[in-house]
## 1
Amino acid sequence: MRRFRFSPALPKAPFTAADVVLLLGVASLAYAGVRLAFGAPPVIAGPEISTSPGALPWYAFLSLARMSVAYLLSLAFSLPYGALAASRPALRKVLLPLLDVLQSIPILSFLPVVLLGLASVLPERAASELAAIILIFTSQAWNLTFSFYQSMTTMPLELREASSIFRLGRWLRFVTLHLPFAALGLIWNSIMSWAGGWFFLMAAEIFTVGPRDFRLPGLGSYLQTAANEGNGRAIAYGLVTLVGIIVAMDQLVWRPLLAWADKFKIEMTESDEPPTSWALDALSGSRLARAFRTNVAAPCAERIERWITGPLDAPPRPEKGPTRASLAAKVGVAIVVLAIGYAAFRATDLLARVSGADWRRLVLGLLATAARVSVSLLLALAWTIPVGVAIGQSRRLALVLQPLVQVVASIPATAIFPIIVIALLRAPGGLDIAAVLLMLLGTQWYLLFNVIAGTSAIPVDLRYTSDLLQLKPLERFKTLVLPALFPYIITGAITASGGAWNASIVAEHVVVGGKRFATLGIGSIIAEATAQGNYPLLLAATLLLILCVSAVNRFVWRRLYRLAEERYRLD
């Protein structure tokens, strides 16, 4: 077993032309959104949100439906995206920088532009629903994509060689090798994705931009309305409903999936305490479930596989030269590049309106926010690694703490943040401390769930070997646990730091009791520009934040990913 140490010489990863094109593309999209926002209706009236307990079942169903649609879209995006980035070196040069940019877009600052842009071309309710799903999607997709990419790049070489020996096609290799190997990480990150979705639910379902009210009926808007009214009883009913949904999903969805996915672990010895699930046992013994698998699920899966792979006796397709379709594709790419160039040029007109004093404030704010993000990430690492290892190694502890962690992670920290601000305002640096706490509350769970996933994936035979060698706890942690966790820690740290940057928008600028409290930071500037409708400043701050996060991902996290791929795989 290798010791945990960093490689002294890693290749540099400078910015490439692809990075420049991607950043110009984001600037173009931002400019297009701002231009569409100018055409939104001047006044939009949202529906009334009832705080009656009788409305909760319907509101909970609506929120659950939005979360489910966003999660399915996240999976449909993450699996092919991560697979292409891991298996195609040429595409990886474009897909990974694009993923860095997508993750770094502060959606809470961009949401007003998205809402107003959609409202200018869609009916108000449809625009609100689509914007809510987009916001929840952005809180679910990136960690799933990074998790699947990490699993594919750290897959043991003997598994890849075996798939080549058996001459498995792309689809069979995907469903029989890639998905099973990534199953545990994907399930734990799915739990985190749902927790992140609940975290953003209040912002997604109740959002106002000046006289335009984009609220939607749902559990998030119910809780926010109850909090604004000071209705403690309604808040209690809403939180009980939220906790009930989380516990029900833990028992009926996540725990059965974790117990089922345990068979995909790479190990020579079976665990003494395999995960169990009463729901999975009930389904396994159900005649209806067996009939559904035999008569519905299996035939559908076979047809889908045949549709994707084609008939086994189909002759190979002859190679074709350039066609009209390829020529049309090249023309389409050229048109898109020209449109990006034009929009980027027009975006510079907005950026030119930002004064020199504002640019200096933006740079100082970026440095201040970077310091808070670093502190919150270090605090998260300090407690999530030992706690995650303890939960991942003990089935009994996981039975108690897993649903508790899901509940705590899913409670919207923005709902309790005003209380934290009031408690810390009189302390020296009170708002700075409060901002770090909110970043920590919103991002530490990405690390915790990935550490639990990594610990659960450690083969039992390696644990038994460390026991036979009579390794001391610290030595075992250094030689087995930490190297095995390293890829998962990097995945969690990337998504956690990205979440911390996004959380700065609500952490550095808060309104409590009608009073505005703000501290120096890029998030505070974005929130201020959003409230004032200062689109040039909003565009400048957003692009500066994207550039900073992309640079950190490229020069720090990407190198650590490469280290995990080269030295800390189970070979």
Note: The chain has a mean pLDDT of 77.
## 2
Amino acid sequence: MSFSYLPGTPAQLQGPLSRFLPPLEAGVVSGMLASHDPDSVLVLDPFGTSPHLVKEAAEAGFAVLVAVNNPIVRHALTQLLQPPDPADLQASLAALAQLPKNGSRLEAFLLDLYSTTCNQCGRIVTADYFVWDEELHEPYLKGYACPHCSHAGEEQTSEDDRRMARSYERRDLSWAQALESVAPAGDPDRRHAEAALAVYPGRARYALVTLINKLSQLPAEDRSASAMNSLLIAAFDASDSMWAYPEGRARPKQLTASPRFRETNVWRALERAVTAWDASRNVVPLAVWPDSGLPRQGEVALFSGPVKTLSETLPAGLRAVVLTSPPRPNQAFWTLSALWAGWLWGRDAAQPIKAALHRRRYDWAWHAGALQLAAHNLVDVLPPETPWIGVVPEAEPGFVAAVVSGFDASELGLEGWAVRADDAQAQLRWMRRKMPPRSGPMDLTQMADDVVATALRSRGEPTPYLILHAAVGADWAGRGVFRALWEAEGGQPVASLNLALETALGSRSRVVRLDQRQEIETGLFWLTDPETTEPPLADKVEQTILESLRRAPGRAFLDLDREVCARHPDLGTPDRGLVQACLESYGVRDEAGLWSLRSEDEFESRASDALTIRSQLQDIGQRLSYKVNGGPRQTWRNVSGETVFTFVILETAAVQAALAAAGQGLTLVIPGGRAALLAEKARRDPRLAERLRSGVRILKYRHIRRLAEETTLTRDNLIERMVVDPPEHEDPQLPLL
């Protein structure tokens, strides 16, 4: 069954926790649900990793049931569905600010922790942040805006700044207090909680513990208010040492400080949190499952628990579509979530995810097993015809293999898959299918080798490891290989897949890695015997874009991108960058952002242009006393009959056939608008780049026109003139031209 990748708008996640939430593309969820009837099916998300997935499904008119076991993600989901009132956030901040602390207000006390001296006027100011060198274990930069002299910027820290920062690094009473609500003394998870707490700079830890301790002085209604929790979660998220400098937002997976990190002023983080939670979004009705019963259309029912417990609450015969973003192992976020939940709501609230504290490493084999158990619980209670759809952002080989092998072991048959490599996004679809495991001996390496060869021939161009890895995984899922591996003693499906593929790719009998300097997971692979392959995928995508623009002008990028992906499904899913390069080569975008064909690339106009260039080339050759033969492929021979030049006149950037035919003095003649696209193809394909560097000349149409008008052109200066393109026409994207 053919399966098309469904593009969306690239994720622009903002606000608290965004560095930990799955970067799903907007529009994908509603697009995948378009073939389903919201009147008759419920959307079921058993993992609840993405608040944005849930919200988009509800806004598409579907009733949604979501299980969220992580209390921090649960809070983020409620804030997304029912955005906080900025006035409530401001009131919560004001309530915190006025709490007494050491004879002062809490706001002033916390700001004083970040006191420094203005390098311009010498007066005391509050730093907005410090930048630390983890190796030196001290801050070396400070960022501030002086209210006295208006000086602002980043400056070197002073010895007083560094001494003050180091004074908070000892493990004092605040250290013990921060652990007490999560793992008190004697708790076997105590040392793991300490490792999580160590990711905070000492000053931030002291400030946060001070905040948490002062909460008990607030009225009960203020202390438990959703707005108050939103402020504090934002501060927790902003204050750790995983904020790399100067890159800004990263996507940390492990609890390790960045080599250089930004230490944020905790009170400033609270102030920014007032506007960090987006209050401009539509409100989505929210209910509690199972107390409230099945949700209505456009409503979300939230279950606070794991998949296993959710499955026990579902009614028989539930008509649903399972649409989810499978969880990706994230030791940093899961561990911090346990810590934060304990701080805000106590030990019991942290209990559901406390296991994250003592697991320091999540390998893909463990994750495949966890997904298998979770999916199995649901498969048994949902009707067999229930479709399962997985959206996998941050797709990498191990993650995709864990999802595919884990679901396969739960009697979910993989029906379709597609991977967009440059965006690291995968999409998969399953249906329940009882299929016996493959029996008899299996040569896993040979099986992987065959799949890789077929995939490369189908794509017709060098292909990244991620796509080949996914292709082998999909093949094994369809043939019962994973189930056989699961049932084998000590079976390790993900490890077996990795070993078989790497052995096949390393044998060099059918496949070669084009850049040996690259790690295997980032390299490109191609056939040692590339006979009988399809035309390059890049050329087919180029043709699709050209046909689409000629057929219907005034189209949005997303519309065109989806058409291209629909016409090149499965293995043929093109990169977004390639689609963009093709559009920029042939199209022009109006003020509304809609793309139409350039007038010069209309069929009649371009065909006429090519004929003119052919005629001008012929005239130039004859004027220089060469014998000219041919049409779109012209040869110029000298008086001895030897071919001196071979010109191939092209209207597109599909140059592979011309390069394969070769010819003495090969020169490709292309429209100027194809130059950047050809450069993009060369970037994607090292074979093409090497071929273009090996003596092939490339001329643009406009340069042929100039040569035709040049009166001083001779045989002696022809090559010199051919390689000269005046500066105003230089194309920095393709120096070869």
Note: Confidence is low (pLDDT under 50) at residues 726-737.
